[in-house]
Amino acid sequence: MKISSKGRYALRMMIGIAQHNAGEWTSIKDISERQGISIKYLEQIVTNLTKSGLLISSRGPKGGYKLAKSPDKYTAGEILRVIEGNLAPVACLENDSNQCERRSICPTIDFWEGLYTVINNYVDSVTLQDLATSGCIDEGCDYSI
What we know:
With 145 residues, this protein is mainly α. It has helices at residues 5-19, 28-35, 39-51, 76-84, 109-123, 128-132; strands at residues 55-58, 64-67. The chain has a domain at 5-86 and 128-132: Arc Repressor Mutant, subunit A, CATH 1.10.10. β1 and β2 (64-67) form a beta hairpin. α1 packs across α3 and α1 (5-19) crosses α4. The longest helix is centred in the first third of the chain and has 15 residues, at 5-19.
């Protein structure tokens, strides 16, 4: 499993909004300038975050984006799954039930299930608030998990 640029940038975007969340709308231009990510690329990301209900959008000259809930109510896992989909380390774990014909004889299935559990437990234990107050503000921060 490898988190894409979109996943990393979505986290950075959400962190940036959380850090500057004084109840005002944050423009995509401001996010782009603070994070060093092109507006075009952010537009692709923000669409998914808004459709999923993680962000609220407002059009117009004073519009922009706001968090739909407080930063402590988001997890890194929730944000990553909106962009990346399932965080399964192997294809056979991507669906709710493992449909692999070799599941019953697979010598590695317990390993993959264990890794998947560890990944999910970790990304779901880190909140947006944790990331926003981790000591690294805006430029130059790389939020790798």
